[in-house]
Design goal:
single chain, 278 residues, alpha/beta, seven-stranded parallel beta sheet, 10 helices, 13 strands, 23% strand
């Protein structure tokens, strides 16, 4: 089994070293893992950083290259132990950051690049400290329409291999908005899934939702729509920010995909998709 969404202590909101995660992966019997530390590109925010040895420094192309080399070193060590280690990154996307991203990752041979939306209007909607800054000024429908419009821009950017946690706004939105958070703009979602197909992006099944709202991201309604609209490429990730959460919900995520008629997931090598039978 694979886990394609892992944050180490290089991310400002996570803990655990690369080697600790690799050892835990062996203990759990995972076949392949991909490190996807945060790369938040919004220079107006304080999380535009990366950590090394417990110290924060600005997010630069040099820092990303250093992290990539640390993962590559682990890859060589753990290949001898039967664990495939991939180097990835989770980009916090927003419209207008495309040129900076391309400059930042130029020359880095990632296996996997995932695009996710964490912020709207520079406020992090999946942060316990910040979500109210946006939610308090927007009705649920406004939030969701703006969020998916930005997701469509992400899908059309052709910069990524997969889309992360598509309905993560529910993390705090469920309690804040109540049933209104379940509104789905189906025409906009149809356009997003068309863009995923055309641009060959995967759709992530993110198991962190099980730990947060007792439901995967994406919800069953979104999964059914994705299947009906011929989305075929799925990835799975625990979205762990501590070693103890590595692999949590991955087996269930695979069964979840299977329940909608999917027969395979996808890993990535040098940004090329590799099918993994469920």
């Amino acid at each position: 089994m694979i886990d394609y969404h892992i944050h180490t202590n290089h991310s400002p909101d996570a803990e655990g070293t690369i080697l600790e995660y690799c050892d835990q992966a062996l203990y759990l019997g995972l076949n392949e893992i991909c490190f996807t530390n945060h790369a938040e590109m919004d220079q107006t925010r304080e999380d535009n950083i990366i950590r090394f040895d417990g110290r924060a420094e600005p997010l630069t192309s040099k820092a990303l290259e250093r992290l990539h080399k640390e993962v590559a070193a682990a890859r060589d060590i753990y290949a001898l132990k039967g664990l495939t280690v991939r180097s990835g990154i989770e980009i916090g996307y927003f419209s207008g950051m495309e040129a900076r991203l391309e400059e930042m990752v130029a020359g880095i041979e990632y296996d996997f690049m995932m695009g996710s939306i964490h912020c709207l209007n520079h406020a992090c909607i999946d942060s316990s400290r910040e979500y109210k800054a946006y939610f308090s000024d927007h009705a649920a429908r406004e939030l969701i329409d703006e969020y998916y419009a930005e997701i469509l821009n992400l899908a059309e950017s052709r910069l990524f291999d997969a889309l992360g946690h598509i309905d993560v706004y529910k993390k705090y939105g469920v309690n804040f908005y109540g049933p209104d958070i379940n509104y789905l703009p189906k025409d906009l979602l149809a356009a997003i899934f068309d863009a995923l197909r055309r641009n060959e992006l995967g759709l992530e099944i993110n198991a962190a939702g099980l730990r947060r709202i007792d439901q995967f991201y994406p919800s069953p309604e979104i999964m059914k729509l994705a299947r009906d609209l011929k989305v075929e490429r799925l990835t799975v990730g625990s979205d762990c920010h501590k070693v103890a959460d590595l692999g949590k919900g991955i087996k269930e995520a695979a069964e979840y995909a299977k329940s909608f008629g999917f027969s395979r997931l996808f890993a990535f090598e040098k940004r090329k998709p590799v099918p993994v039978k469920i």
